[in-house]
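Format notes (please read before filing issues)

Several people have asked whether sequences and structure tokens are stored in separate files. They are not. Every record keeps both together, in the order shown below: the sequence lines, then the token lines. Line labels are part of the format and must not be stripped during preprocessing.
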Amino acid sequence: MTTELWNATRDLHHACEQHPVGGVMAVGKPPAIWYAAWLQVLLQLHEVVDQHLPSTVHRVDRIKKDIATLGITVEPIKAAKSYANTLNNSTAIVGAAYVLTGAHLMGGEIMRRRLEGFPTEHLSWDSRPEALKCLTQLRESPEVIQPARDCFKCLLDSMDEILETYPQ
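Then the structure lines:
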């Protein structure tokens, strides 16, 4: 399932990396307001997803710590709120959890080093092996492709909203 899932979500994954907001995040040089808005997106999604996952991959407390450390508060992101409201069944939760956990574990390891001067507690792990085990289980769900695509679409829509709300 892993290769099929990766192939089925690759276009949206790359679109996120190539988006103006995603691109500056990837190089570790986002405007602080964009980073604050991105943390808000992650918080809104993890507040729903985390309650269905093992504690080893929970991110809410860490994201809140990063927001507090950054010291910039932004309004909830409408695209994330709308998507979070659709996370009302196990298939949708697994798709979102796969995308978010995978992003924090894989790309997050690189991002943690690149985001110099920004708080990155949400990208650290008490037990990376346990988190990887959880990610592997999420990848094996046979119905995860469309829900994972939906999560990637939410991330793109959220980046569009960040760009529109906080033009640079």
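For reference, the curators noted about this record: The radius of gyration is 15 Å. The CA atoms of residues 12 and 152 lie 6 Å apart.
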